[in-house]
Amino acid sequence: MRGAPRDSIFRRLRPNEPPDTWHQVTITMKGITMKLVNTLAPRGAGAGRRIAAFAALATTVALVATGCAAATPGDDAGSDGEGTTEALSIAFLPKQLNNPYTDVVLSGGEAGTEEIGGEYSVVGPLEASASSQVSFINTLTQQGTKVIVIAANDPDAVGPALEEARAGGAKIVAFDSDTNPDYRDVFISQVVSKDVALIQVEQIAEQIGGSGEIAILSATANATNQNEWIKFIEEELASNPEYADITLVAKVYGDDDDAKSFQEAQGLLSAYPNLKGIISPTTVGIAATARYLSTTDYKGKVALVGLGLPNEMREFVKDGTVKEFALWDPAQLGYVAAFAGQALVDGTITGAVGDTFMAGELGEKEVGEGGIVIVGPPTRFNADNIDDYDF
User: Fold this and answer.
1) Is residue 163 part of a domain?
2) CA–CA separation, 280 vs 379, rounded Å?
3) CATH number of the domain that 323 lies in?
4) Second label for 334, Cα 20 to 30 Å away, from 25, 118, 301, 385?
């Protein structure tokens, strides 16, 4: 959303606060929204335990608060006069918590859920491993959550747990990274996957002069979205004569971890001294790689393209480390996902091709082939326009 005001629902990430120094848990229950922020969440061996404990504390406080609210005399919110009508419970389960990109997506999910009048919650692992989401799905099923919105770390590992959730009455909305289609009702996709791949190939070809060795620094090896983009990248490089002189020499994985991505970038330049460019289709990976390049002699010599957040990449564009990268508006993913969940629950859509639903201020959205809902096209960011964006 170009030129959007800073208080827009799609602009809630705090760009000046590094993601490794704060952790936020947002829970909305029975009309009460609580945000607990831990500003002392350092990295290291004990960080995961401290953040997990913080999340547990947040949930406990929320439960106590909502219990008190329920007992308050005269509080008839959500009541029809004869009984209480429960708000629609929508739980977001991202690949991992404490990811800047995810924080932006979730801000949109929170805004959408609030507009619907639902109960918003977020759960998720601290590491993006294949099976790390299963226990969270099981817990949400036991709690009777009506809508589970998931970005899958592995399309099949979450399958049995999601099937059980659906058997219990939950609607499943995949977003960002799809599950096996058999395990969800709809998938909210950023853009057409091939378009994401093509724009990155175009950018790297332009910046290396159409020839030379390149590498890909991805997220996790099992990430559905990453692997689909990489597949299209490889196909385009192999089939388009314009790219005949470009050679893809390596694919490495930073697991959407800043430190590991930084190390993988170092490793690529060490192993391939003639490398002319890196494609990193992950916001964590491209930011870590840019940080590494910016402090070395490779700055301005090795091209870096991929998918990044403008607020994280701005300094690297302005200092000449990065010429251009791409992305869409991540908050819109979460926003549309919330409305899709509501539409599934109330029967407006079933996930069939041609189904339509209203997604708040983003208007009507249509379900396409494979139960996929496309949010919007990718945008190129460079020195000419990066200050027009704030996310």
Assistant:
1) yes
2) 16
3) 3.40.50.2300
4) 385
Q: How does pLDDT run along the chain (391 residues), one tens digit per residue?
A: 333 333 444 443 333 333 333 344 444 444 444 444 343 333 333 444 344 444 444 444 444 444 433 333 333 333 333 444 578 999 999 999 988 889 999 999 999 999 999 999 999 999 888 889 999 999 999 999 999 999 999 999 999 999 999 999 999 999 999 999 999 999 999 888 899 999 999 999 999 999 999 999 999 998 888 999 999 999 999 999 999 999 999 999 999 999 999 999 999 999 999 999 999 999 999 999 999 999 999 999 999 999 999 999 999 999 999 999 999 889 999 999 999 999 999 999 999 999 999 999 999 999 999 999 999 888 999 999 999 888 9
Look up tokens 């819109």; give the residue. Answer: 332
175 assigned to some structural domain: yes
347: left (phi over 0), alpha (psi -120 to 50) or beta: left
Verify that 254 and 303 share a domain, yes or no: yes
Say if 387 falls within a structural domain: no
pTM score, whole prediction: 0.68
Written as one string, the DSSP assignment of 259-280 is: HHHHHHHHHHHHH-TTEEEEEE
Q: Same domain, yes or no, for 323 and 345?
A: no
